[in-house]
Amino acid sequence: MDFSTLYKKIVSSYKKSPSLYRESLFWKHYNKLNQAQLEERGYENFKQTANWNYYQFEISSIRNIYLLFLFSVTPKLESLKILLRSKIKNCSLPWFRRLIYKYFIGTLYEFVAKIDSQKILDGIAEPLEGNPVLVSYKNKLLSQDVLSSTLEFYTLEEAAQISQKKFLKIAELGAGYGRLAYLITSLLKNKDVKYCIFDIPPALCVAEYYLTRVFPDIKILKFREFKNFKEIKKEFEKSQICLFLPYQLELLPPKIFDIFISISNLPEMRFKQIANYFKQINRLCRGYYYNKQFWDHFNAQDNLRMRFIDYPALPNWRPLLLRPALAQKDFF
């Protein structure tokens, strides 16, 4: 099935979703933009179009807070080496913005490398699928997505020791194209790990098409409609990656996941949706919930301000780790 056919199939099912699981005004705007980008430049270039609207930040100003933080923790001689020895590849940004971006990636690499106790960055590379922007530095091809995902892996490792688990079922709400699913599945490929993605189109369409291509030898439960979990139970149990629309959370049995993840997505919804997802996470997750969001975010399209204290955590939850995100201090 080509990407266009897959997209039409998933959108057709999505339009029948209950309103509680349909996109907010925020995502109506960005989904139109993402759809137009995918139509104009194709799935083949999504890492340079739609991906800028997921968790890949286009660092184009020397005043960017993430760049300023990394500059402050990078020795000046190291900064000079990054500027002189790094090269940005396959990027259409103007030359000065390319310079800023390659410096950002180089300093982010040095930051991540200092905590990379498992040497992830020596063994994981950004797939060329999707035409990513890459930075060549220290004989490595670096991407923002692999570096960000590595930081998130180590946070999960610190709180939940996921690399030590023999069996692991992970769910992620709003996974973009599946960058974290790619990294965790690659790292834990010798263990019994299942990674389930719940998202709306076009992101779910990109994730399914992408993950089936970068993992051709892995059993994947592709999106399909079902009315009862029994219809997919056997295939679900055999699959390492599963893809669902958000409303299908309600069709899964309770306490099925060990880890539930949501990254940079909840403030972009309506509060009623956020409260419902917390209810579903509580029903479905028997272990750890990893929430990474802005400390304070105003969603103008939906007229919603979400602060850290506004998230409706349930009384039976116990906090294990709370801090600013390692390289993005405006996130918790």
Describe the protein in words.
- Strand 6, helix 10 and strand 7 form a beta-alpha-beta unit.
- The model has no long low-confidence stretch (mean pLDDT 96).
- The protein has helices at 3-14, 25-41, 65-73, 76-85, 95-113, 120-123, 144-160, 179-187, 203-214, 233-238, 271-284; strands at residues 87-89, 134-137, 140-142, 167-173, 192-198, 220-221, 241-244, 257-263, 285-292, 296-299, 304-307.
- The protein is of the alpha/beta class and 332 residues long.
- The strands form three sheets. It has a six-stranded parallel beta sheet with strand order 6-7-5-4-8-9, with helices on both faces.
- The relative contact order is 0.13.
- It is built from eleven helices and eleven strands.
SSE pattern: HHHHEHHEEHEHEHEHEEHEEE
Q: Which regions have little confidence, pLDDT < 50, spanning 5+ residues?
A: none
Q: Give helix % range.
A: 25-40%
Number of strands: 11
Mean pLDDT: 96
Major β-sheet profile: 6 strands, parallel
**How many helices?**
11
Shape: globular
- Please state the CA-atom Rg, rounded to the nearest Å: 19 Å
Strand order of the largest sheet: 6-7-5-4-8-9
**N→C terminal distance:** 39 Å
Q: Structural class, from secondary structure content?
A: alpha/beta
Strand content: 15-25%
